[in-house]
Amino acid sequence: MLAGTGTLALATAAQAQSAASETTAGTSISNTASATYTVNGAPQTATSTTATFVVDRKVNFTVVTTQTGFTQVNLGQQDAVTTFRVTNLTNGVQDFLLDPDQQNISVGILPGTDNFDLTNLRAFVDSNNNGIYDPGVDTATWIDELAPDASVTVFIVGNVPNQAGAQLAFDSLHVTAAAGGSTAVKGTALVATDLNLGNADNTVDIVFADDDSDGLLYLGDVARNGQGRAYAGYQVVTTNVALSVMKSVRVLDDGVNTLNPKAIPGATLEYCLRVVNATLTTPADAVTLTDIVPTHTTYVPGSISIGTPGVLGIACVASGSPEDDDADDSGDSDGAIANYDAGTKTLTARLDRVAGGGSTAVSFKVKID
Which residues constitute the signal peptide according to the record (predicted)? Predict the structure, then answer.
């Protein structure tokens, strides 16, 4: 994540309360009263009818990201992971449904601007509690039978596209409380009991007590709706680019043959340096090429050209500009500069920038001695 920023994790005093210390939902509580009295001096007793009720389900939980920054990814990376934690604060065992999604939430929750989406986005539960996504091991797509006060890690997993200019993708884990009670059976989403109805003593009512986890109503979570949401993201970072340089040479003329000139003494040859940046998202700046003119050849003055590559074998530079041989580049305005040092027979070409996915060519000529 960008320096000085952090993902949002909301918690309130209500959420911090221990669910394990609360009476379990469905617990039946009964008691009776008794009376003592006398009749003509004889002591008597009476017992009341029994009043019974069951404890209702107070649904509460938290969902937060466990990351302190964005997940750093590369273009084309498969199974990139963001990490979350769900804690059950309900007074009973609970299932939770998991919905991974992506949203452009450039509204202050996360820094920066979302500009790409991952593909094949999925959510998996950490089955062995090691905090690391293990493909083929972490396969559960919902949280099953989570005990009060227990927590579990959830991974959002997706594939990063090969998309030019991709920088940030924001994702969120949307969690919905569901019915528990049956191992390995996916519970259905809980529905709160109508608060306009009176309490039913023999029925476990459902009461949502969860907070608005994201603070943004329009993103699908409000207080006391049995849902929660937390956010994380992916950041494409590049510390290097796939830069390659291909060098080739061809005979331009030999002074003898016109159709197929040969590399004979006196022939003029063209060297071609083709620079390719195969990294789509990141330019390479200040690319400097150094080439020593080989022995038995002599540099042709004023023959350096830099520009758009041409068709191999036909033209090294299709569209470019000639460069002078001296080291005074004060009058240069095309962004590329070059010079030739006759003392060391060294040619130097400095390219202002090779764009992501782009290429540039440098050519110069020599004569065979």
Answer: 1-16
Catalogue all structural domains in the chain, each as residue range(s) with its CATH number: 13-30+53-236 (2.60.40.10), 243-368 (2.60.40.740)
Q: What mean pLDDT is predicted for residues 288-309?
A: 94
Token representation of residue 153: 């890690």
Residue 103 identity (one-letter amino acid):
Q
| DSSP code for 50 | P
Separation of alpha carbons 219 and 203, rounded Å? 33
Structure tokens at 184: 């390995």
Q: Residue 295: which residues within 8 A CB-CB, separation 6 or more?
A: none
CB atoms within 10 A of CB 326: 10
Report the largest interatomic distance among the alpha carbons of the chain, rounded to a whole angstrom.
Answer: 148
AA identity, residue 91: N
pLDDT on residue 220: 56
pLDDT at position 39, please?
94
Characterize 171-180 residue by residue with b for buried, 16 or more Cβ atoms within 10 angstroms of its Cβ, and e for exposed. Answer: bbbbbbbbbb
Where do we find the tokens 């290429």?
A: 359
Report residue 232's pLDDT band, with 50, 70 and 90 as the boundaries.
very high
d(CA 184, CA 145): 8
- Mean pLDDT to the nearest integer, 292-307: 95
Alpha-carbon span 144 to 184, nearest angstrom: 6
| CA atoms within a 13 Å half-sphere pointing along the CA-CB vector of 142 | 18
pTM (predicted TM-score):
0.65
Report how far apart, in Å, the C-alpha atoms of 73 and of each of 99, 101, 160, 270 are.
22, 18, 8, 42
5-32 pLDDT, tens digit each: 333 333 333 344 588 888 999 899 999 9
